[in-house]
Amino acid sequence: MDSIINFIHTTGFYNLTIGHIIMIIAGLIFLYLGIAKDYEPLLLVPIGFGILIGNIPFKGGMQLGIYETGSVMNYLYMGVTKGIYPPLIFLGIGAMTDFSTLISNPKLMLLGAAAQMGIFITFIGALFISHSLPFLHMNFSLKEAGAIGIIGGADGPTAIFLSSKLAPELIGAIAIAAYSYMALVPIIQPPIMKLLTSETERKIKMKPPRVVSRKEKIIFPIIAFLIITFIAPGAIPLIGMLLFGNLLRESGVTERLARNARNALIDSVTILLGITVGASTQASTFLTPKSIGIFILGAFSFVIATACGILFAKLMNLFLKEKINPLLGAAGVSAVPDSARVVHNVGLEADPNNYLLMHAMAPNVSGVIGSAIAAGVLLSILL
Fold this sequence. Notes:
The chain is mainly alpha-helical. It contains 21 helices and no strands. The protein has one domain.
């Protein structure tokens, strides 16, 4: 009888709390969005199932949970806490990214840079909430505010990398917020884009980009790496792997390595990162006022980043003879390639013959670089 009672005490039904139920529902929502709605399924399906894994209640000491030393999940989670998975994902992204449009029209890089203002505005906003609104019980430290701000870059790996260095205890909430808003790009961005642009501006057609030579494609990642990392050494792990992956792609002599980086490697790391980040959202550690604050600030950050990119494009048009379609500014967030697709689709709504996808990829990949640089700057200042 004692054995039976002990067994009952170890079951999930016995240890279930309202918090576990809430998180399990959240995991099911993630799975629904990924599978039924096809919103970033490669991210939301692993994360959603990871949330289920992390919120099956069990008796402590069984070495099963992600926070229990010696458990399998704990070892896999080290790739997140030690910042291993994000640079590997950047390697794969670099190997699958074509920088031709950016090289052919460098001024579009400024749109990716402008969108990163969302990161620093949110950083300041988190500090303001902490010091001016103490009754909300969202007391973020300087490092925590920096880690939260990076959500505005709409780059999950960058958010995870920076939070692993500055605020490891907030990785779960920050990662879930970043990936949630990345998946909801097709819902969040179009209203902002239409609010800040006129129909005439949305109909602006871009000049076809020039053909970029193989030599330019090879030189770009080398020169870009040297310039960026000398300015912001903190970006070396992310920028280094991103541009190294791109060099593998463009060199023409390492196709086998590039193919592995953009297929098998990135797929494997995405699975491990998604499942472990999801499993880190245990109800007891995740359902706190800080987590709620992170989601609110994350949404604010994403909206501000989108708006800054669009408004900066409109500002540039005051001085340019060849006008830029301001919708391209929305692609400055680094949700590759979803934000570029959204820009293209909104452009087609205004004019069915206006094809913006290739142009939108320039600020989009610039946003990837920009968010990594911003992370490096925050790391240098706050660590």
